[in-house]
Amino acid sequence: MDVTAWLARNGHLLKDSRFEQRFVQDVLTRVPDLDFSAVGAQYQFTDDRGRPRRCDFVIREGTGVRIAIEVDGYDKRGTGTGMSRGDFLDWQRRQASLVAQGWRVIRFANVDVRDQSARCAELLGLLLRDERSKESHSRNLEQRIRELEAARERKVAEERARYGQERTELEQLRCELALARQAAGLSGEESQRLAQLEQAQQQVKVLERDGDVMRTTIWAFTVLLVVVLVLVFLDRKPPGETQLASVAVSPAGREAPAPMRVAVDPVRPAPQLAGSSCAEPLPWSAARERVGDVVAIAGPVTRVAMRDDVRGRPVFITMGQAFPSRQRVDLVIWQDDRARFLPLLEQGLEGRDVCAFAEVREREGIPQLVLRNPGELQLR
Asked: Distance between CA 53 and CA 93 in Å, rounded?
């Protein structure tokens, strides 16, 4: 950045001081190898008493070069008497705070800026060279360069890995497209046979669904029957006992029957229905038949992919056969919910059996379960 660009950005900070404007034009422009992008005007800082302060100019390069510049006049308040005792104390305290914060402070008088600008520029240039030559500054620059190079290498490696995944997927899709183009169309007889097989498959699905309804009805009737039998058993008296098995005497002298103890067999809990929880899940291959239902689906994980390049940055967990096979179930965790699943994802899911409990949806013919809470995904 040159002085023209610098003044266009910072000139409004100097409008109240003609000596500061002269310092930029006559002094800073003469300092050798000075990059104006490292120069700041009216730098704000906080002194040791917590009060906000300003410094006229600063030069800051990396973390090693920190030069604070003050352009001072003898009579800043215009009283004709110069600096007061309070002004002197304030001047000293402000400089001490700058030094304590790691700044090397240099001060120029207004008259020197006006009459000896070349000498001021030479002095500032020597100070800048001295700060740059310090070993600590070089070490800081080298460390920063190493950090930036390492960050760039990591980014390049990530881009290469992502490109490799996309290239592999692209090659698979091209192979599938080539096979699709080479496949011959079905003859009339084959088309008729396919229609018959599809119709038979639909009938099997209907029968399975009816069977599920029948099993549910039987279980419900069994539970109802058990409840009725328990109520009848509780209402009956134990055999061999009379109505007055034991007698108690009331304070008024009247006899009153004492309460009878009846032993009741505990009722066995009804077995859980398949798919109602991860204790009795459905196999992943049955997910396609339960679209629209909230059920538990279990199976092996063949792939976990964190797609940060896709809108919403989802995590895809493939259950069943590996992508791009259509014989699979996709479990989806969106970016907003990913943090809650991290403890489970960090355990490594590929090759392990899991159970997901959520609503079964369908996307492009593939069953899909969107998981919101960690309790909806369990290791088996």
From this structure: 11
DSSP letter string, 212-261? HHHHHHHHHHHHHHHHHHHHHHHHSPPTT--S-SSEEE-TTS-EEEPPPP
Which residues of the chain, if any, have pLDDT below 50? Answer: 240-253, 255-256, 258, 262-265, 267, 270
Q: Where are the domains of the chain?
A: 3-133, 282-379
DSSP structure class, residue 186: P
Is 345 in a helix, a strand, or coil? helix
How far is Cα 53 from Cα 343, in angstroms, rounded to an integer? 48
- How far apart are the C-alpha atoms of 36 and 218, rounded to whole Å? 86
Strand order in the sheet with 52-61: 39-46, 52-61, 65-72, 104-109
> How crowded is the C-beta side of 331, counted as CA atoms within 13 Å?
32
Q: Are 300 and 356 in contact (CB under 8 A)?
A: no
Of 70, 67, 65, the residue nearest 55 (C-alpha): 70
CA atoms of 367 and 360, how far apart (whole Å): 6
- Work out the burial of residue 63: count CB atoms within 10 Å of its CB; fewer than 13 is exposed, 13-18 middle, 19 or more buried: middle
* Token pair in block for residue 112: 């020197």
Q: Could you tell me the fold of the domain covering 282-379?
A: OB fold (Dihydrolipoamide Acetyltransferase, E2P) (2.40.50)
* Per-residue model confidence as pLDDT tens digits over 237-253: 555 444 433 434 444 44
Say which CATH class 3-133 falls into: alpha beta
- The CA angle 247-251-255, to the nearest 5 degrees, is 25
Integer angstrom CA distances of residue 168 from 172, 317, 323, 346: 6, 18, 11, 25
Whether this model's pTM surpasses 0.70: no
Question: For 298-340, how does the pLDDT look when each residue is reduced to its tens digit (9 = 90+)?
Answer: 999 999 998 888 888 999 999 999 888 899 999 999 999 999 9
User: What H or E segment, with its residue span, contains residue 50?
Assistant: none
Give the CA angle between residues 61, 65, 66 to the nearest 5°: 100
How far apart are the C-alpha atoms of 355 and 294, rounded to whole Å? 13
Q: How far apart are alpha carbons 354 and 304 in whole angstroms?
A: 12
